[in-house]
Design a protein that fits this description.
The chain is an alpha+beta fold. About 20% of the residues lie in helices and about 30% in strands. It comes from Reyranella soli.
Length: about 200
């Protein structure tokens, strides 16, 4: 609907799963949860890639915040190649702040140090990932990538977002497309020439 602020096919609350033919090496086998998609572009968080050697406790230590051991050991997501020094918290919608962006499907995104303090103190969201950086697309850019079959679109859900088995997420997201007797999606069956996603 023109003028509504959203493109006709908003992908908010859905996963973009990198097609086997993904030309951009930064996104190979990525699962991106889309948080915002409108006429100004799109923003998503890669949910199956963590920052190596950076547990959440190290981030808290840099901020001077004390955290319990079980929180300190959690990984930090590499949310994407845009603004990699900026932290965003992708979390369940049971926690809200004034600046929180509510996302379809019971998810939310907050970019403030206050949510980190609340998480450390036990009053934060039930489920959350801190992501450094995000994935961003200029107006029309994601639509072009979709036409080029770089991405497959899969319905989003919190269980896959918050699953800590990062290595299995890409295949699990593809399996949501189904295919075959086993219900597993075979990436080899995907052709770059299949038409629009």
């Amino acid at each position: 609907m023109p003028g509504s602020g959203s493109p006709a096919a908003s992908l908010v609350g859905r996963f973009l799963v990198a097609a086997p033919s993904m030309p951009d090496g930064q996104f190979k086998k990525s699962v991106v949860f889309i948080c915002k998609h409108d006429d100004d572009g799109a923003l998503g968080i890669i949910v199956n890639n963590k920052v190596e050697d950076l547990p959440l406790g190290q981030v808290y230590k840099q901020l001077g915040i004390e955290v319990p051991e079980q929180v300190a050991e959690r990984p930090v997501l590499f949310g994407g190649p845009v603004q990699t020094s900026r932290g965003l918290v992708l979390h369940s919608a049971d926690y809200m702040r004034e600046e929180t962006l509510l996302i379809e499907g019971g998810m939310a995104l907050t970019a403030s140090q206050e949510i980190l303090k609340d998480m450390a103190g036990g009053s934060g969201p039930k489920q959350a990932w801190l992501a450094l950086g995000h994935s961003g697309w200029a107006p029309g850019q994601l639509d072009r990538e979709m036409q080029d079959n770089a991405w497959l679109v899969v319905d989003g859900d919190a269980s896959l977002v918050f699953d800590a088995d990062f290595s299995a997420k890409w295949q699990r997201a593809l399996d949501r497309l189904g295919g075959g007797v086993t219900g597993r999606f075979d990436p080899a069956s995907f052709s770059h020439q299949t038409g629009r996603a």
